[in-house]
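Q&A FORM
Asked by: J.P.
Topic: structure of Putative Zn-dependent protease

PROVIDED:
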Amino acid sequence: MAARPQDSILYVRRTQLYLEHGEWKAALTDIERAERLGSDTAALDLLRAQALALGGLNSQAEALLSDFLKDHPEHGFAHLVHARVLAKMERFEASLKAYRTGLRRTADPEPDLYLEIAQALTAQKLATEAVELLQLGIARRGNVPSLVLKVMELEIAQAKYDAALARVDVMQQQAPRPEPWMARRAALLQQAGRTQEARAAWTTLRDRILGLPNLERGSHAMSLILEETQRALAAPASAAPETSTPSL
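REPLIED BY: S.T.
REPLY: Here is the structure written out as tokens.
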């Protein structure tokens, strides 16, 4: 920047770096410099809104975003920023509306965005819509473990065990190591009250682990799964073991 102190683009780029690191005051300073050097005002307003939101100045950020979106209604990222600011202001209905719009106007949403919106929906007791959203994410992005685990969590909370078990079966087939998913399947069967099937699943898993070569069987992850399996088989038929999260 010392060689090109009048280059507004450099200030914009540094602003983006400041925002990534949460340095909102430094970001605002560079935004002012870029504006004086002739950068696009609308683009700077979006950056300014993000900086203000980082600083907890949500009302100011929301006002800027509302104005920006009047002129740029197709800007998916701006809708998502707006949704997050509205959520901080506890305007949850408006936040969800902005999230839905932002998702529709994002060309290739990342898995984390589906998770973020699903969490927002769940917080407002819209679990059915959250499941549908996660299913859409899986259809578009494939069986990303984070998406599968989240939709399973919601399905289990709704006692939709067959749907959750079907997802476990798919992940077990795709995983480089099936044992963590075998353990989850057995625990789910137990949770669903299908005791005999659960015991058979735990037994199959135990036999599989004991049949592994010593080096594989003795790994830390496999030792933990074997311990969980042995506890489950030793427990009374009505007792459900704790479910471990698959090591992916």
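FOLLOW-UP: The two ends are 44 Å apart (CA to CA).
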